[in-house]
Amino acid sequence: MTTSTILDRALATRVGDEPIDIDQINALLDGGEIAHSMTVAEVAALLDLSPHTLRYYERIGLVSVPRAPSGHRKYDTEAVRRIVFLTRMRLSGMSIRDLTRYIELAEQGESTVPERLALMQAHRAQIARQIEELQVSLAVTDHKITTYGGACGS
Length: 154
What we know:
By secondary structure, this protein is mainly alpha-helical. Helices cover 64% and strands 0% of the residues. It is globular.
């Protein structure tokens, strides 16, 4: 199940225009497709990421992955959920610097909640702006489609 598949499934579970909540996404991740212990290659295939990206996230401290006695990475559900979070934040434009700061704060505990909240609120504002810009782009695209005699879906 790639992160796109997770998103598609989450959108399919949405009722009307209600926003998708994290519980819906976590339920998709609990669907038995995540083994207790997965290799880097298995997680890469599952989430449609490169093993290099997964190792990079680990190297820069965005995700912690336990190791087997052999030294091989063994991704658990928590690590896979973290990676899904990271990929959603990256897709929405969050910088590695901001993600690193967020993870550092999260690992420090409850005392950092106000700073994490501020970081997420600022990022949400950026996403909202991107959505507005995309709506303008969609309107322009729809105009061109109808200009050429096509019909636009909803």
